[in-house]
Amino acid sequence: MKNGAIKRQARDERGTSGSKRSTTRGAHREPGAVRTASGHSRQRGPRDVKMAAMKQERWAPHVTVAAVVEREGRFLVVEEQTSEGLRINQPAGHLEPGETLVDAVVRETFEETAHRFVPQALIGAYMMHVDRPNGGATYLRFTFCGQPGTYSEAGSLDDGIVRTLWLTAEELRACRARHRTPLVMRSLDDYLAGRRFPLDFVHTHSVGPLNGR
């Protein structure tokens, strides 16, 4: 056999054996196993399932707004019905499509308290992770402070809102075990410490579609 033919035969044999090794490795991988960066296999765990779900559906935090409304040393809060019973919260809720953050906090305050709200400053942006049996959730909360406007006698409160209250900081601190979220007291403490950012600190820029990005 000539040298060229011998070399071709050797290449063919190497390629055949390589394919068999590759097939064998795949055949011995256990069902539900994933391959690590080091080349080893391990069983698929809860994190793998969670990551696969995140790839199918793009993850995003829940964007919410809240209002710290002070009048003569007292703060406007709501008592609301939750799955954990009655809880105290600032007027708060989710950002809705097409709204600015300021639009949202004005709307939520009126819907939950029947009080008009005039935002004057941003106290801060707060992120909170909540563990739940179904995987949990992340909230990004923008809290504003401002002055109470007119009260609407005809205004009806949102579903779940039992009543509105005007409480002092000391009264709120004393009932913190009943707060809907730790951010109620955290944002109030920031407000009392004088933390303020101008309303235009958060800029809203409207654009057209960006290919889904």
Automatic annotation (TrEMBL):
<protein>
    <recommendedName>
        <fullName>Phosphatase NudJ</fullName>
        <ecNumber>3.6.1.-</ecNumber>
    </recommendedName>
</protein>
<keyword id="KW-0378">Hydrolase</keyword>
<feature type="domain" description="Nudix hydrolase">
    <location>
        <begin position="60"/>
        <end position="196"/>
    </location>
</feature>
<comment type="subunit">
    <text>Monomer.</text>
</comment>
<dbReference type="GO" id="GO:0017111">
    <property type="term" value="F:ribonucleoside triphosphate phosphatase activity"/>
</dbReference>
<dbReference type="GO" id="GO:0017110">
    <property type="term" value="F:nucleoside diphosphate phosphatase activity"/>
</dbReference>
<dbReference type="InterPro" id="IPR015797">
    <property type="entry name" value="NUDIX_hydrolase-like_dom_sf"/>
</dbReference>
<keyword id="KW-0460">Magnesium</keyword>
<comment type="similarity">
    <text>Belongs to the Nudix hydrolase family. NudJ subfamily.</text>
</comment>
<feature type="region of interest" description="Disordered">
    <location>
        <begin position="1"/>
        <end position="49"/>
    </location>
</feature>
<dbReference type="Pfam" id="PF00293">
    <property type="entry name" value="NUDIX"/>
</dbReference>
<feature type="compositionally biased region" description="Polar residues">
    <location>
        <begin position="16"/>
        <end position="25"/>
    </location>
</feature>
<dbReference type="InterPro" id="IPR033713">
    <property type="entry name" value="NudJ"/>
</dbReference>
<dbReference type="InterPro" id="IPR000086">
    <property type="entry name" value="NUDIX_hydrolase_dom"/>
</dbReference>
<dbReference type="GO" id="GO:0004787">
    <property type="term" value="F:thiamine diphosphate phosphatase activity"/>
</dbReference>
